[in-house]
Design a protein that fits this description.
Number of domains: 2
Biased composition (Basic and acidic residues): 234-249
Strand content: 5-15%
Number of strands: 7
Structural class: alpha/beta
Strand order of the largest sheet: 2-1-3-6-7
Protein name: Transcriptional regulator, LuxR family
GO biological process, one term: regulation of DNA-templated transcription
Helix content: 40-55%
Largest sheet: 5 strands, parallel
CATH superfamily of the largest domain: Response regulator
Radius of gyration: 17 Å
Number of helices: 11
Region (Disordered): 228-249
CATH class of the largest domain: Alpha Beta
Order of helices and strands: EHEHEEEHEHEHHHHHHH
Domain Response regulatory: 2-118
Length: 249
Protein backbone atom coordinates (compact mmCIF):
# COMPACT_ATOMS: atom_id res chain seq x y z
CA UNK A 1 0.00 0.00 0.00
CA UNK A 2 1.29 3.47 -0.97
CA UNK A 3 -0.03 6.40 1.05
CA UNK A 4 0.72 10.12 0.79
CA UNK A 5 0.55 12.34 3.90
CA UNK A 6 0.28 16.08 3.20
CA UNK A 7 0.72 18.11 6.41
CA UNK A 8 3.05 20.93 7.41
CA UNK A 9 3.59 19.69 10.98
CA UNK A 10 6.44 17.18 11.02
CA UNK A 11 5.46 15.83 14.44
CA UNK A 12 1.91 15.09 13.29
CA UNK A 13 3.16 13.40 10.12
CA UNK A 14 5.49 11.25 12.21
CA UNK A 15 2.68 10.26 14.60
CA UNK A 16 0.34 9.41 11.74
CA UNK A 17 3.11 7.42 10.07
CA UNK A 18 3.55 5.35 13.26
CA UNK A 19 -0.18 4.61 13.32
CA UNK A 20 -0.20 3.60 9.68
CA UNK A 21 2.83 1.31 10.06
CA UNK A 22 1.19 -0.33 13.06
CA UNK A 23 -1.85 -1.13 10.90
CA UNK A 24 0.11 -2.00 7.75
CA UNK A 25 3.74 -2.97 8.52
CA UNK A 26 4.70 -3.08 4.84
CA UNK A 27 3.10 0.27 3.97
CA UNK A 28 5.08 2.72 1.82
CA UNK A 29 4.66 6.29 3.03
CA UNK A 30 5.29 9.47 1.06
CA UNK A 31 5.41 12.86 2.78
CA UNK A 32 4.79 16.46 1.75
CA UNK A 33 4.88 19.56 3.97
CA UNK A 34 3.33 22.05 1.54
CA UNK A 35 0.38 22.09 -0.80
CA UNK A 36 2.58 22.41 -3.88
CA UNK A 37 4.74 19.45 -2.82
CA UNK A 38 1.65 17.42 -2.02
CA UNK A 39 -0.02 18.15 -5.34
CA UNK A 40 3.16 17.34 -7.24
CA UNK A 41 3.30 13.92 -5.59
CA UNK A 42 -0.44 13.29 -5.75
CA UNK A 43 -0.55 14.06 -9.46
CA UNK A 44 2.49 11.99 -10.35
CA UNK A 45 2.63 8.96 -8.03
CA UNK A 46 0.97 5.56 -7.95
CA UNK A 47 -1.09 5.81 -4.73
CA UNK A 48 -3.81 4.03 -2.79
CA UNK A 49 -4.92 7.04 -0.76
CA UNK A 50 -4.00 10.58 0.35
CA UNK A 51 -4.31 12.08 3.83
CA UNK A 52 -4.65 15.84 3.39
CA UNK A 53 -4.47 18.69 5.89
CA UNK A 54 -6.50 21.77 4.97
CA UNK A 55 -4.47 24.59 6.51
CA UNK A 56 -1.15 24.55 4.67
CA UNK A 57 1.49 27.33 4.39
CA UNK A 58 1.01 27.87 0.66
CA UNK A 59 -2.72 27.33 0.25
CA UNK A 60 -5.92 25.70 1.44
CA UNK A 61 -6.60 22.00 1.05
CA UNK A 62 -10.01 22.59 -0.54
CA UNK A 63 -8.26 23.92 -3.64
CA UNK A 64 -6.30 20.66 -3.75
CA UNK A 65 -9.51 18.65 -3.41
CA UNK A 66 -11.02 20.54 -6.34
CA UNK A 67 -7.96 19.94 -8.51
CA UNK A 68 -7.68 16.27 -7.56
CA UNK A 69 -11.36 15.78 -8.34
CA UNK A 70 -10.57 16.85 -11.90
CA UNK A 71 -7.07 15.42 -12.39
CA UNK A 72 -7.02 12.30 -10.16
CA UNK A 73 -10.70 11.27 -9.99
CA UNK A 74 -10.03 7.70 -8.81
CA UNK A 75 -7.64 8.68 -5.97
CA UNK A 76 -9.40 8.66 -2.55
CA UNK A 77 -8.61 11.62 -0.29
CA UNK A 78 -9.16 11.70 3.47
CA UNK A 79 -9.05 15.12 5.11
CA UNK A 80 -7.32 15.37 8.49
CA UNK A 81 -7.83 18.82 9.96
CA UNK A 82 -8.12 20.91 13.12
CA UNK A 83 -11.16 22.62 11.56
CA UNK A 84 -14.22 20.76 12.85
CA UNK A 85 -16.97 23.05 11.54
CA UNK A 86 -19.84 21.24 9.87
CA UNK A 87 -19.68 23.73 7.01
CA UNK A 88 -16.07 22.77 6.23
CA UNK A 89 -16.78 19.05 6.54
CA UNK A 90 -19.77 19.39 4.21
CA UNK A 91 -17.68 21.36 1.70
CA UNK A 92 -15.00 18.66 1.67
CA UNK A 93 -17.57 15.93 1.08
CA UNK A 94 -19.05 17.94 -1.79
CA UNK A 95 -15.53 18.13 -3.24
CA UNK A 96 -15.49 14.30 -3.13
CA UNK A 97 -13.36 13.72 -0.05
CA UNK A 98 -13.94 10.15 1.16
CA UNK A 99 -13.84 11.07 4.85
CA UNK A 100 -12.90 13.65 7.47
CA UNK A 101 -10.84 12.97 10.60
CA UNK A 102 -10.48 15.76 13.23
CA UNK A 103 -6.97 16.24 14.57
CA UNK A 104 -8.46 16.61 18.05
CA UNK A 105 -9.44 12.93 18.03
CA UNK A 106 -7.89 10.97 20.92
CA UNK A 107 -5.34 8.31 19.84
CA UNK A 108 -7.82 5.43 20.07
CA UNK A 109 -10.41 7.32 17.99
CA UNK A 110 -7.79 8.32 15.43
CA UNK A 111 -6.68 4.68 15.25
CA UNK A 112 -10.27 3.55 14.63
CA UNK A 113 -10.77 6.26 12.02
CA UNK A 114 -7.62 5.38 10.10
CA UNK A 115 -8.47 1.67 10.29
CA UNK A 116 -11.91 2.38 8.86
CA UNK A 117 -10.79 4.48 5.91
CA UNK A 118 -7.96 2.12 4.97
CA UNK A 119 -10.53 -0.70 4.89
CA UNK A 120 -12.63 1.25 2.41
CA UNK A 121 -14.97 2.74 4.99
CA UNK A 122 -15.88 6.37 5.58
CA UNK A 123 -15.14 8.27 8.79
CA UNK A 124 -16.88 11.48 9.84
CA UNK A 125 -16.97 13.09 13.31
CA UNK A 126 -19.89 11.62 15.23
CA UNK A 127 -21.02 15.04 16.43
CA UNK A 128 -21.30 16.25 12.82
CA UNK A 129 -23.30 13.34 11.36
CA UNK A 130 -26.66 14.38 12.85
CA UNK A 131 -26.18 17.97 11.67
CA UNK A 132 -25.15 16.82 8.19
CA UNK A 133 -28.20 14.57 7.92
CA UNK A 134 -30.44 17.38 9.09
CA UNK A 135 -28.91 19.84 6.61
CA UNK A 136 -29.39 17.32 3.79
CA UNK A 137 -32.96 16.57 4.85
CA UNK A 138 -32.28 12.90 5.62
CA UNK A 139 -32.79 12.98 9.39
CA UNK A 140 -36.19 11.33 8.95
CA UNK A 141 -34.74 8.43 6.93
CA UNK A 142 -35.36 4.92 8.31
CA UNK A 143 -32.79 4.09 10.98
CA UNK A 144 -32.03 0.72 9.47
CA UNK A 145 -33.39 0.55 5.92
CA UNK A 146 -32.89 -2.35 3.52
CA UNK A 147 -29.29 -3.38 3.07
CA UNK A 148 -27.93 -1.03 5.71
CA UNK A 149 -25.56 -2.61 8.17
CA UNK A 150 -25.68 -1.62 11.79
CA UNK A 151 -22.86 0.60 13.05
CA UNK A 152 -19.93 -1.52 14.16
CA UNK A 153 -16.29 -1.23 15.16
CA UNK A 154 -15.61 -4.48 13.31
CA UNK A 155 -12.78 -4.37 10.78
CA UNK A 156 -14.54 -6.89 8.53
CA UNK A 157 -15.25 -5.87 4.95
CA UNK A 158 -18.91 -5.81 3.94
CA UNK A 159 -20.05 -8.02 1.06
CA UNK A 160 -22.57 -7.38 -1.68
CA UNK A 161 -24.97 -9.98 -0.27
CA UNK A 162 -24.80 -8.50 3.24
CA UNK A 163 -25.84 -5.13 1.82
CA UNK A 164 -28.50 -6.65 -0.41
CA UNK A 165 -26.66 -5.64 -3.60
CA UNK A 166 -25.55 -7.39 -6.76
CA UNK A 167 -21.76 -7.67 -7.28
CA UNK A 168 -21.92 -4.95 -9.98
CA UNK A 169 -23.93 -2.64 -7.73
CA UNK A 170 -21.41 -3.21 -4.94
CA UNK A 171 -18.50 -2.34 -7.25
CA UNK A 172 -20.35 0.76 -8.43
CA UNK A 173 -20.91 1.79 -4.81
CA UNK A 174 -17.20 1.45 -4.01
CA UNK A 175 -16.18 3.69 -6.93
CA UNK A 176 -18.99 6.16 -6.28
CA UNK A 177 -17.97 6.60 -2.65
CA UNK A 178 -14.34 7.08 -3.68
CA UNK A 179 -15.40 10.05 -5.77
CA UNK A 180 -15.76 8.92 -9.36
CA UNK A 181 -18.58 10.34 -11.49
CA UNK A 182 -20.72 7.83 -13.34
CA UNK A 183 -19.00 8.15 -16.74
CA UNK A 184 -15.59 7.47 -15.17
CA UNK A 185 -17.06 4.52 -13.26
CA UNK A 186 -18.34 3.17 -16.58
CA UNK A 187 -14.80 3.29 -18.01
CA UNK A 188 -13.41 1.58 -14.91
CA UNK A 189 -15.98 -1.21 -15.09
CA UNK A 190 -16.07 -1.57 -18.86
CA UNK A 191 -19.78 -0.74 -19.01
CA UNK A 192 -22.02 1.71 -20.83
CA UNK A 193 -22.63 4.97 -19.00
CA UNK A 194 -26.39 4.36 -19.01
CA UNK A 195 -25.85 1.02 -17.23
CA UNK A 196 -23.82 2.65 -14.46
CA UNK A 197 -26.43 5.38 -14.11
CA UNK A 198 -29.04 2.67 -13.56
CA UNK A 199 -26.82 1.08 -10.90
CA UNK A 200 -26.42 4.47 -9.17
CA UNK A 201 -30.19 5.02 -9.25
CA UNK A 202 -30.75 1.54 -7.79
CA UNK A 203 -28.21 2.21 -5.02
CA UNK A 204 -29.78 5.49 -3.99
CA UNK A 205 -33.26 3.97 -4.00
CA UNK A 206 -32.01 0.92 -2.08
CA UNK A 207 -30.60 3.08 0.72
CA UNK A 208 -33.47 5.64 0.57
CA UNK A 209 -31.07 8.42 -0.42
CA UNK A 210 -30.83 11.01 -3.17
CA UNK A 211 -27.14 11.76 -3.84
CA UNK A 212 -23.55 10.72 -3.17
CA UNK A 213 -23.03 13.06 -0.20
CA UNK A 214 -25.86 11.28 1.62
CA UNK A 215 -24.20 7.93 0.86
CA UNK A 216 -20.97 9.18 2.47
CA UNK A 217 -22.80 10.15 5.66
CA UNK A 218 -24.75 6.86 5.73
CA UNK A 219 -21.61 4.74 5.31
CA UNK A 220 -19.87 6.67 8.10
CA UNK A 221 -22.87 6.28 10.40
CA UNK A 222 -23.30 2.55 9.72
CA UNK A 223 -19.61 1.60 9.71
CA UNK A 224 -19.82 -0.05 6.27
CA UNK A 225 -16.43 -0.94 4.73
CA UNK A 226 -16.00 -1.61 1.02
CA UNK A 227 -12.42 -2.91 0.76
CA UNK A 228 -8.94 -1.40 0.55
CA UNK A 229 -8.79 1.29 -2.17
CA UNK A 230 -6.72 -0.02 -5.11
CA UNK A 231 -3.54 1.64 -6.35
CA UNK A 232 -4.52 4.36 -8.80
CA UNK A 233 -2.42 5.31 -11.83
CA UNK A 234 -1.96 9.01 -12.77
CA UNK A 235 -1.79 8.10 -16.46
CA UNK A 236 -5.11 6.25 -16.29
CA UNK A 237 -6.63 9.10 -14.30
CA UNK A 238 -5.76 11.49 -17.09
CA UNK A 239 -8.00 9.50 -19.38
CA UNK A 240 -10.75 9.49 -16.75
CA UNK A 241 -10.44 13.25 -16.22
CA UNK A 242 -11.07 13.78 -19.93
CA UNK A 243 -14.51 12.21 -19.54
CA UNK A 244 -17.33 14.74 -19.41
CA UNK A 245 -18.70 14.78 -15.86
CA UNK A 246 -22.40 14.93 -15.13
CA UNK A 247 -23.56 17.73 -12.86
CA UNK A 248 -25.07 15.36 -10.35
CA UNK A 249 -24.14 11.77 -9.47
Amino acid sequence: MRVLIVDDHELFRAGLALLLRELFPSIELLHASTLSQGMSRALGELLNIVFLDLDLPDGHGCSALAELRESRPSLPVIVISADESVETISRCIELRAMGYVPKSSPPEALHAAISAVLAGGVFLPAVSIARLRRDMGTDEAPANGPGIAKSSVSSEISTASELGLTPREFETLAWLVRGLPSKAIALKMGLEDITVRKYVSHLLAHFHLRRRTELIVMLAERGIKLGVPPVTDPAHDRSLSAVERPRND
